[in-house]
Design goal:
Layout: E1 37-45, E2 57-65, E3 74-85, H1 92-98, E4 100-101, E5 105-109, H2 113-127, E6 141-145, H3 160-168, E7 186-187, E8 190-191, E9 194-203, E10 206-218, E11 225-226, E12 229-230, H4 232-236, E13 246-254, H5 260-267, H6 270-276, E14 286-299, H7 317-340, E15 344-345, E16 351-352, H8 357-365
Parallel strand pairs: 5-6, 13-14
Antiparallel strand pairs: 1-2, 2-5, 3-4, 3-14, 7-8, 9-10, 10-13, 11-12, 15-16
Length: 366
């Protein structure tokens, strides 16, 4: 079986190239934002012919923890942007109305959205037994991409236990590539998956972090662009049966004090980073971006008539630098997902090769 699960591959920056000019965080990860953690659970089972409901299985789940306390009791301010709405993300209607997120954020394959949602509901009810009884219900947020080229997606192999395992695995060190929700995903005709990056914005005495995590599953080889250069030779070898419309989920976290409208403005900048890599948001692509801030949290039991909070002045250079940080971190997160992913064989022996690191070097050094 062509599957390099044990191969250790570099991140994009390890190749000696940089994206943009802003400083990166210590880990160059969404978890550079204080309090944010990410956990994965990867499911790889079976080989050969597809037997719907049985396998082979190439899927998983990824969970983003906005902070280390009870998210239902201390909700985070949030906004989102739908670049192209061919997606099935749950919970966005309430995010739009209230400007907040009150659950962990789940990512998985398209048909496992209900299972992951159900598991997150169970998890948060266990933390908050009054949900739906003496207080309000809960709005869980779960996003998806279609991993059906490699995975028996009809089998809905992601179960509650996998979600709980991903939560238990959550840490500051984020695995990238073919892990969690990214296990069966494809990117520009190569293997894709999970990628992350961060930027630090400094303005006088203020210093803030913007972190991005992507679940990549879009694009054709002929469109792949790396630091403004196209891999033209790879484009001529495009494998026709992998030419699907694809999708991408982008999660943006920051410790900058922003309201939901400002966070929505940040979310609208992520597509610029996607476009730099070759994305053009085809008609069948589900391109959804969610942004949240870890500060100015909303207390669930708050009953004060008025609330005072400080937010960044949008007319300043600082706010523009936050927008720039989103663009740079999104672009680099996509490239990290591409570089870190390993080749994989899935159902019906469908094969998705990892991009050649040497060809990336040759392209950028030419």
């Amino acid at each position: 079986m062509k599957q390099d699960k044990q191969e250790i591959r570099p991140r994009f920056r390890d190749l000696g190239f940089t994206v943009g000019d802003l400083d990166i965080g210590k880990l160059n990860s969404i978890t550079d934002v204080p309090g944010v953690k990410v956990g994965h659970c990867t499911i790889i089972e079976g080989n050969g012919k597809l037997i719907p409901g049985k396998g082979p299985v190439r899927t998983g789940v990824t969970v983003i923890l906005p902070h280390e306390k009870n998210v239902y009791r201390e909700k985070v301010r949030a906004g989102y942007f739908v670049l192209n709405g061919y997606g099935k993300t749950t919970g966005l209607v309430q995010v739009q109305e209230l400007g907040s997120i009150e659950s962990y954020i789940g990512l998985t394959n398209t048909l496992s959205i209900p299972a992951v949602s159900d598991a997150l509901i169970d998890f948060h009810i266990k933390e908050n037994p009054d949900i739906g009884i003496s207080t309000s219900s809960i709005n869980v947020v779960v996003g998806e991409c279609n991993d059906g080229f490699l995975n028996d997606m009809q089998g809905r192999h992601v179960k509650k236990g996998h979600v709980f395992q991903a939560i238990e695995n959550a840490s500051k060190n984020v695995e990238e590539g073919c892990v969690g929700a990214g296990t069966g995903m494809s990117l520009f005709g190569y293997k894709g998956g999970i990628g992350t990056a961060s930027r630090v914005v400094i303005e006088k005495t203020a210093e803030y972090v913007v972190g991005v995590l992507v679940l990549t599953n879009f694009g054709s080889r002929k469109d792949l662009t790396i630091l403004g250069k196209k891999l033209h030779k790879e484009g001529r070898k495009q494998v026709t049966k992998t030419q699907h419309h694809g999708s991408v989920m982008v999660i943006i976290a920051t410790d900058a004090p922003l309201n939901y409208r400002q966070l929505t403005r940040l979310a609208k900048r992520a597509p610029l980073g996607l476009a730099r890599t070759g994305s053009f948001a085809s008609w069948g692509s589900g391109d959804i971006i969610i942004a949240f801030s870890t500060v100015n949290r909303i207390k669930h039991d708050e009953n004060a008539a008025t609330i005072n909070m400080s937010i960044i002045n949008e007319s300043t250079k600082l706010f523009s630098e936050l927008l720039k940080a989103v663009v740079e971190a999104t672009e680099e997160a996509v490239l990290n997902s591409l570089c870190k992913a390993t080749s994989m064989t899935g159902r019906d022996d469908n094969y998705m090769e990892a991009i050649s690191i040497e060809k990336i070097k040759e392209l950028l050094e030419s």
